[in-house]
Design brief:
The chain is α+β, with helices and mostly antiparallel strands. It has one domain: Aminopeptidase (3-Layer(aba) Sandwich), CATH 3.40.630.30. Strands 1, 2, 3, 4, 5, 6 and 7 form a seven-stranded mixed beta sheet that branches. The radius of gyration is 15 Å and the shape is globular. The two termini are about 30 Å apart. Coenzyme A binds next to α1, β6, α3 and α4.
Length: about 160
Amino acid sequence: MSGAPGSPCRATAGPLPRHDGATTIAYECRGGIDNGALDALHAEGFGPRPTGTDWRARLHRHSLGWVCARESGESGESGEDGRLVGFVNVAWDGGPHAFLVDTVVARRHRGRGTGAALVSVAAERARAAGCEWLHVDFEDGLAPFYFGACGFRPTRAGLIAL
Ligand SMILES: CC(C)(COP(=O)(O)OP(=O)(O)OC[C@H]1O[C@@H](n2cnc3c(N)ncnc32)[C@H](O)[C@@H]1OP(=O)(O)O)[C@@H](O)C(=O)NCCC(=O)NCCS
């Protein structure tokens, strides 16, 4: 999501790495994926348990991009070795529409701005890739997050359970 699908990047715009006591959170676009770590994080957000999904293959095959939030220790080093504490996936129609899915933050990191920062980086990168619209759908209780913290505006949308 840095102008052309396929190229990795570090978040250089949008939220900067956040120093939070002894840890730093860094936001990375299209970075390396550890299937087990992402499966565990996804299960923490959406349950009930890890599914064994090959996230790496799925993301590379179907996504415009994805953003990982990684925690690192006092050294401030981050990246591939940092613990995965947040994730969002950006699906794509190949044109102007991008779709946020699977926004998730590890339980113990919630309520500190990580989720909103992930979405902000994803939106910025989708814009840079030429997208004009970023869609998301969610349950009523998450309106303060998506409308309040992430800047989405309400629209009508539809859904069919297939
Ligand atoms: C939704 C989620 C990603 C938010 O991550 P987060 O890092 O806690 O979010 P932030 O700290 O950036 O939240 C910013 C603001 O959004 C609102 N907000 C965040 N999570 C919320 C929730 N679950 N319900 C209602 N409002 C919420 C709050 O106003 C918050 O500000 P505050 O902490 O000052 O009150 C996280 O709760 C999560 O992983 N949930 C489980 C998975 C899920 O439901 N994902 C959404 C799929 S559509």
